[in-house]
Here is the input.
Amino acid sequence: MEEKILKRFRREMRLNACLKSIREACETASLYFDNEYVVYDFDELSCSLSCAADYTKEIEEIVGEIIDAYEEEIRGLENE
Here is the structure.
């Protein structure tokens, strides 16, 4: 039982970290385009935004893991 809770907690933490990173990248870009944030290295902004795509892929993987876990739980309940 504790193992399941730890797995869920790790997934939730990974998901939260990805969402936070995407939000930070988007906020930085938004401030830059609104001329409220000075970017001294345009590559930094570009890299930040390109990482958002990687985070969305990771989110898709996490959601897939969550779906698999729920399907496993449902199968376990059906077999009882």
